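FW: tagging you since you asked about this chain on Friday. Here's the raw sequence from the shared folder, copied in full. Didn't touch anything.
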Amino acid sequence: MRTANVVVVICIAGMSAIFAIASHGQMDVAGSNKRPKAEAVDDAAGNLHVPDAYRTTYQSLGSWAVSADQGRGSKELHLVYASPGTIAAYSRDGHFPAGTVLVKEVYEAATEPMTTGTVSHADTLKGWFVMVKDSNGRHAGNKLWGDGWGWSWFDAANPSKTTSTDYNVDCLSCHQPARASDWIYVQGYPALKQ
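HL: got it, structure written out here
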């Protein structure tokens, strides 16, 4: 078998494993209709934190690669997770239900040549961006809540203390182009297009 054919076979096998894992993450727990309950990520005052077990209890929503300013490859990779049941609810209703939690891991990327070509991969964790869907305006006095969401950035060194102070200043400008889709860039999430 030629080297190129071996690479293609390995890539197909890898993608099959990823799809199988993603599909399993959307299945009911132990064959029941109960989904794992996500921990609360906000306190009574509306202060957010990064959930402890999101990698094992949340569903993979998708990923983004941010191009390098110069040269080849990516400068950042963003991996996004959604709280249990979010994908099914969005697929059914066409919107994020109240209480949805989205966690985006932001990594500095490393780019290097490999047999498949020049590749970028996650290298150093920079931090997390956490959003919580709030349909009821329950933290109206908190400057990190508004436009239907709670918003916070957390540096990798401290997942329990946000560095965000006002979502209008710190978060909304990046999400403005996604206003029509509830401030979320849904086009980048294959799981929402099923």
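FW: The chain has five helices and six strands.
HL: agreed, and Strands lie at 59-67, 74-82, 101-114, 117-133, 145-146, 149-155.
FW: great, closing this out.
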